[in-house]
Amino acid sequence: MALSTIRVDSLQLQDRDLDLLRGLFESRVMTIKHIAPLYFDSSGHAAKKRLQKIKSAGLVAERKRRSRNEPSILFLTRKAFVLLRDHGHISKYPSFSIATLENRANVKDLTIQHELNIMDVKTAFHTALAASEKFSISVFSTWPLLNEFTVSSRGGEDIIKPDGFMRIHEKEADSNGYRHDHFLEVDRSSEQLDTLVNKALCYREYYRSGGYAVRNGKRRTDFEEFPFRVIFVVKNAERRNNLAERLAHNMPPILTQTWLTTQAEVSCNPLGAIWIQPADYRAVTKGTPFYNEHPLRRFAYRHQPEREKFIEANIKKLRLLAE
């Protein structure tokens, strides 16, 4: 492991240490379950050993645990923030004060759990792609302000702050390869489905208006050259299916740009056949008792265990990437 030129007390920081500190700055919190695969080749022993030294140097601290069984939740300290800032390691991020940093670590448990769920998704993708010779992650950002965009709507303007942005690079012989762009939304099940549908509509407008093309340095009229997917990770199959139904029957419908899966499935195998599109949900339910002909007139969140069994047995789930 290469060594940086930065020393903190008796600890000579390695480049990997700086990567970890930057990662904590961006993500707010992590556990050893995230740190080991992201920075230590999935070696929990090596991660714990190195973290002990980093914590002893005062660069990382631990949130107070609610119970003995709760995992250690780590965050960046003021000392580490100043070190990163003064050495130019976080210059790409928006201006940030020490007070704001400390407020980020002192938030509600629900917010912390959401951040950990986002890190679960990021870790799952990094782990799944680590052994791939064809695909690799070139960007996986979880800083909302870096990915924020504004679109026009009937109510004025909507500001969207994605939970994450992931760019996967695909190698191709005799070319620069291809990129697969994805915006990530991790649902906490605390928002109404209409809120999620509105987000999906905003992503649709971001693409069709050329906003994403402009972000990539091109003209708005070049929008077709910059496709992206919006991947929604939700709590369970019931919520996934309700969201798929709501998207499929919306006016206008969101049929293929948005891909849906559950937290359990993405944590186990994000590259597997775990994703569904609203178009496929609509097709597999049409002509069955589970098809809601006029959901916009009176849409209600539905609890139908038999529907969930039917969907699992009949829908063709998709892979995010094709080898």
Q: End-to-end distance, in Å?
A: 32 Å
**Which strand order does the major sheet show?**
5-8-9-10-11
**Using only CA atoms, what is the Rg?**
21 Å
Number of helices: 13
Query: What is the typical, i.e. mean, pLDDT?
Result: 91
Q: DSSP strand (E) fraction?
A: 15-25%
Spatial shape: globular
The total tally of domains equals 2
Q: What is the N-to-C order of secondary-structure elements (H for helix, E for strand)?
A: EEHHHEEHHHEHEEEEHHEHEHHH
Low-pLDDT sequence parts: none
Question: What structural class should be given to the helix and strand makeup?
Answer: alpha+beta
User: What kind of sheet is the major sheet?
Assistant: 5 strands, mixed
- Helical residue percent? 40-55%
* Count of distinct strands: 11
TL;DR?
The protein is of the alpha+beta class and 323 residues long.
Description:
The protein has 13 helices and 11 strands. It has 323 residues and is an alpha+beta fold. The chain has 2 domains: 107 residues, Winged helix-like DNA-binding domain superfamily/Winged helix DNA-binding domain (Arc Repressor Mutant, subunit A, Orthogonal Bundle), CATH 1.10.10; 192 residues, no CATH class. The strands form 4 sheets. It has a 5-stranded mixed sheet with strand order 5-8-9-10-11. A two-stranded antiparallel ribbon has the order 1-2. A two-stranded antiparallel sheet has the order 3-4. Strand 8 and strand 9 form a beta hairpin. Helix 2 packs across helix 3 and helix 2 runs parallel beside helix 6. The protein is globular and about 70 Å long. The mean pLDDT is 91.
